[in-house]
Amino acid sequence: MRPRGEDAAFAERLWTSLYFWGIPGSRPGSPAGGLLSSAVWWLSSGRGVVSVPWWLRVLPSACPGPRPRASLAFAHCFLLSCRPEPLGRGAPLLPGSRRAFSNEVRPVGSKAVLVTGCDSGFGFSLAKHLHSKGFLVFAGCLMKDQGGDGVKELDGLKSDRLRTIQLNVCKGEEVERVVEVVRSSLEDPEKGMWGLVNNAGISTFGEVEFTSMETYKEVAEVNLWGTVQMTKAFLPLIRRARGRIVNISSMLGRMANPARSPYCITKFGVEAFSDCLRYEMYPLGVKVSVVEPGNFIAATSLYNPERIQAIADKMWDELPEVVRKDYGRKYFDEKIARMQAYCNSGSTDISPVVSAVTHALTSRSPYTRYHPMDYYWWLRMQIMTHLPGALSDRIYIH
């Protein structure tokens, strides 16, 4: 048996292959389909740690008949080729949302990495951490020209390997200017830039009827189209280096949540974009990873009670009269109170996210997806993505 590695998508591929093979109960929508899917996930993983059992390698030769053997051979090669590289035999899982990653890393040397959204939160911590690891870090900051607190602290390190840059990922001219700044700063531009971390993002809340179209477009402009624009702009440099692209998505990019539709839409889009990009870049040696953090709102300071209430008051004032009348203020306030409770219940330690991004940039075999989240959210994500919708709806919605 080969050593273990971590990749949530592996179990999904195994489930798809069972359907491809015609295993009873694997047909989508069948009564046993959801249970079989969950069993496949649980049997093929240990809290996300996946191994390829020996029988997957011998099934093609053991199955008579041209059609079954062809199907099994295809699935067999597909599973082994797409399987994540090993963690190492018996690699332990750390408490909470921490994972034990492979120790096999590439030397950092003078590799250059650009991180977006470094004014605060994940990006701010990533910029400092990657700098401490020896990377040449370009920290894209929205508030660089306004002298934001995060910018001042990063500049205060006074290091030649950490450079803050004014960057609004929604503005094409700023993106183009950053590309030129990075290219001119590289020792050998023909060798390219090693890594791009698309971290910049914004969030909001509100049920569909409470949310304006302007809000939907604003969130998508940053979270989705900003990610696409940055990636397209830097792909020539990344391709030359056969480097890495790490996109920060969310657990809400895998499972929808009430009152978060603007955010969920964009993160589902980031997931799809990342998968398409990974397929396209594989022959070129560029590796694409997605990090799906859980609830870290309390650690990133995106919201506080005052900000939530201010957003809620503005939202209520702008609602059409018919919506206010039909729902009523009591219902509206209950939803806002639930959002406040959610924001206060998140993890305050973002080191699992930082560790995941670092592994994606430095490992010789980065994972397709990383899940830095508490076990409650991890389990909920598996239930909502693997069980039949009617069952997961009854657990979490009804």
From TrEMBL:
Keyword Ligase: no
E.C. number: 1.1.1.30
Location(s) in or outside the cell: Mitochondrion inner membrane; Mitochondrion matrix
GO molecular function, one term: 3-hydroxybutyrate dehydrogenase activity
Record's GO cellular component terms: mitochondrial inner membrane; mitochondrial matrix
Catalyzed reactions: (R)-3-hydroxybutanoate + NAD(+) = acetoacetate + NADH + H(+)
Superkingdom of origin organism: Eukaryota
Record keywords, A-Z: Allosteric enzyme, Lipid metabolism, Membrane, Mitochondrion, Mitochondrion inner membrane, NAD, Oxidoreductase, Transit peptide
Record InterPro entries: NAD(P)-bd_dom_sf (IPR036291), Sc_DH/Rdtase_CS (IPR020904), SDR_fam (IPR002347)
GO biological process, one term: lipid metabolic process
Keyword hit for Mitochondrion: yes
Coiled-coil regions listed: none
PANTHER family: D-BETA-HYDROXYBUTYRATE DEHYDROGENASE, MITOCHONDRIAL, SHORT-CHAIN DEHYDROGENASE/REDUCTASE FAMILY 9C
Subunit structure: Homotetramer.
Protein family membership: Belongs to the short-chain dehydrogenases/reductases (SDR) family.
Protein's recorded name: D-beta-hydroxybutyrate dehydrogenase, mitochondrial
UniProt organism field: Canis lupus familiaris
